């Protein structure tokens, strides 16, 4: 079957509106000296049971029979290509990487990157969206009793508990932490099986 990708407006609404029982996911954690990565993936499968073209509402029914209505925002191009019976597979990913920068030296800042793509007029519904936020913060305090570090970033100061004693002992006042947060959404739609 031909797979199509639909824009994120439908994906975000659907992953938050569909019941948790209909969602499957996995959390992956990796750690190396001075670096920790955590990624969470949520997968949702559903079938389109109704479409209201006027309001752009799409009713999705999961494999366990739960239904949710999501609105396909303006980012969903070629909305008219969606059909009742189409199968929708959504995947939403969030990932966070924290990396220790010994001795500092980087500019304390926040950078945001975003990307999006959409189908051309007349093509099957298609689109993709993602964003990445990177923050560099100074380590301005280290509390061994609570295994907490204080980070001062470009917009605020936060306390962060470091649960891994091996990672904690590597951190000193004057170091920096670079945090990168990534979100991405993808939706694949398979046309309904022909009768």
Features:
single chain; 195 residues; mainly beta; 11-stranded antiparallel β-sheet; 55% strand; disordered N terminus
Quick structural overview:
This protein is mainly β and 195 residues long.
Question: What does this 3D model show about the protein?
Answer:
There is one protein chain. Strands 1, 2, 3, 4, 5, 6, 7, 8, 9, 10 and 11 form an 11-stranded antiparallel beta sheet that branches. 7% of the residues lie in helices and 55% in strands. It is mainly beta and 195 residues long. It has one domain. The protein has helices spanning 8-17, 165-168, and strands at residues 4-6, 23-32, 35-52, 57-62, 67-71, 87-101, 110-118, 127-143, 148-152, 157-161, 176-190.
Rg over CA atoms, rounded to whole Å, is 21 Å
Low-confidence stretches: 1-14
Shape: elongated
Helix content: under 10%
Number of strands: 11
Head-to-tail CA distance between termini: 14 Å
| Quaternary structure state of the chains depicted | single chain
Major sheet details: 11 strands, antiparallel
Q: Tell me the count of domains.
A: 1
The helix/strand order is EHEEEEEEEEEHE
What is the percentage of strand-forming residues? over 45%
The assigned structural class equals: mainly beta
Count of DSSP-assigned helices: 2
> How much is the average pLDDT?
81
């Amino acid at each position: 079957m031909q797979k199509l990708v639909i824009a994120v407006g439908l994906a975000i609404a659907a992953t938050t509106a569909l019941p948790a029982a209909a969602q499957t996911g996995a959390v992956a954690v990796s750690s190396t000296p001075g670096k920790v990565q955590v990624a969470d993936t949520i997968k949702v499968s559903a079938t389109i049971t109704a479409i209201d073209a006027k309001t752009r509402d799409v009713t999705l029914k999961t494999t366990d029979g739960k239904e949710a209505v999501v609105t396909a925002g303006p980012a969903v191009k070629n909305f008219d290509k969606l059909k009742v019976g189409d199968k929708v597979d959504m995947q939403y990913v969030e990932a966070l990487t924290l990396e220790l920068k010994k001795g500092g030296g980087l500019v304390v800042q926040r950078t945001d990157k975003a990307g999006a793509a959409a189908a051309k007029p007349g093509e099957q519904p298609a689109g993709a969206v993602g964003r990445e936020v990177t923050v560099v913060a100074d380590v301005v305090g280290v509390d061994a009793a609570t295994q907490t570090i204080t980070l001062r970033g470009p917009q605020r100061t936060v306390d962060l508990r470091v649960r891994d004693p091996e990672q904690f002992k590597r951190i000193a006042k004057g170091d920096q932490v670079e945090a990168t947060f990534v979100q991405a959404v993808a939706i694949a739609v398979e046309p309904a099986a022909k009768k």
